[in-house]
Amino acid sequence: MFMSARTKRNRMRFMVSACLIAISLSGILLLGANFTVIAQSIDEYVGSETCKECHEVEYEQWKDSPMANAFANEAFQSEWQSQGSPSECLECHTTGFDAASGKYASEGVTCEACHEAGLTMTVNTSPELCGGCHTGSEGEHRYEGFLNGTHASSGVKCSDCHLYEKSHTFEIESKACAVCHTEDDIHDRRMILTLQGEKLEAADKHQEILADLEELQEGLEEDKGKATLITYVAYGGGALIVLVAVIVAVYYYKIK
Ligand code: HEC
Ligand code: HEC
Ligand code: HEC
Ligand code: HEC
Ligand code: HEC
Ligand code: HEC
Questions:
Q1: Label partner for 113 (CA 20 to 30 A): which of 98, 145, 255, 256?
Q2: 99 lies in which domain range?
């Protein structure tokens, strides 16, 4: 078999075009794939309203918390806008922030900032979760400062205090401390509660005793009345016996 120069050239042209088409197609596919990955990561978030359908209690507690309003609140908005609305602020003041596109899933710190995107519903109590946004070393309530404190070294987590009884207001109740601080010193909360309880119990006992005493006194009055009657009866009886004896004696001597 022998090919003409023309057929050969045509075949070359066809191969080169096929290669070019293949390269552009895979390029388009690759771009498309990249695009879907970015779009999906934001799409994975369903929003707190969806969680509300089944977790009304947590939703109601959360919705007025500073974290729920971390984007909408005035303090943030005025500070942010005065700086020209830089996108790096959104990392912590929104949920699902994507640095590459500058987009975010929701305003504020929502359910899915702590429980992962979508209906995965994971529970994460590690201080690192909070520390991702609460950075800094001043005091025990910023991550690096917290790590240097006694509570962290004793295994106490942010959530032990800020989610006491799983409350999603994230506020502290003094009772939260009493979960662990039970019998150390005079300022111990549970001790105070116990003492107050004992005081109330003692007051109740006191009332009970007073009531008993009153009952006893009434009984005594009654008994006293009975005793007086018995005494009168006894005196009367005695007098009667003496009288009868005298009469009998007088009568006896008269007969003699
Ligand atoms: C259709 C109802 C439904 C929706 C919507 C829903 N959940 Fe749940 N969730 C449940 C049920 C049922 C449980 C298991 C029972 C329970 O612990 O209350 C649960 C448990 C959880 C738990 C505890 C899991 C564990 O391991 O103890 C978390 C956290 C949670 N959900 C978060 C969320 C978040 C965040 C959303 C919104 C993104 C959400 N849920 C949406 C029904 C729902
Ligand atoms: C690394 C996470 C992070 C970044 C980034 C961040 N913030 Fe914050 N921001 C926080 C946390 C956490 C608090 C709450 C601090 C506290 O109460 O201890 C806060 C509090 C604030 C407050 C106070 C809100 C109030 O109710 O008083 C303002 C205002 C604020 N941030 C503005 C900004 C601005 C503007 C930027 C960008 C320049 C920014 N933040 C970037 C985490 C962050
Ligand atoms: C700042 C982080 C944070 C946010 C925001 C948050 N949670 Fe939680 N949530 C937690 C932590 C931490 C726990 C585990 C508390 C524990 O076990 O001590 C938890 C526990 C839960 C549980 C399990 C409660 C149980 O009885 O076991 C549910 C359900 C839940 N969250 C739902 C929600 C919903 C719904 C929202 C939004 C309306 C939300 N959370 C917002 C941090 C958060
Ligand atoms: C996605 C970032 C983010 C995460 C994760 C996060 N926080 Fe926050 N938190 C914030 C921001 C931002 C604020 C400030 C809200 C405001 O006032 O504008 C805040 C405010 C708070 C406040 C109220 C502070 C005040 O001044 O009253 C408490 C308490 C708090 N966070 C505790 C926690 C705890 C505990 C966790 C972990 C379970 C946690 N946060 C996880 C970003 C976050
Ligand atoms: C031993 C309990 C406990 C632990 C652990 C704890 N906190 Fe606090 N936190 C408190 C108390 C109490 C307050 C003061 C609340 C008030 O004044 O209403 C507070 C206040 C805060 C505030 C308000 C701003 C401030 O600095 O006063 C933020 C934000 C906060 N905590 C975040 C955290 C984070 C994040 C962690 C973990 C890295 C953490 N806390 C660990 C008890 C605790
Ligand atoms: C989950 C358990 C737990 C909770 C909740 C808790 N603590 Fe503690 N706390 C500890 C442990 C453990 C230590 C370290 C052992 C010790 O000093 O007795 C400690 C130590 C302390 C110390 C001594 C700190 C130091 O640097 O020596 C103070 C003060 C304290 N806690 C106050 C509080 C207050 C206030 C609260 C409530 C807002 C609270 N704790 C909640 C477990 C807890």
A1: 145
A2: 40-182
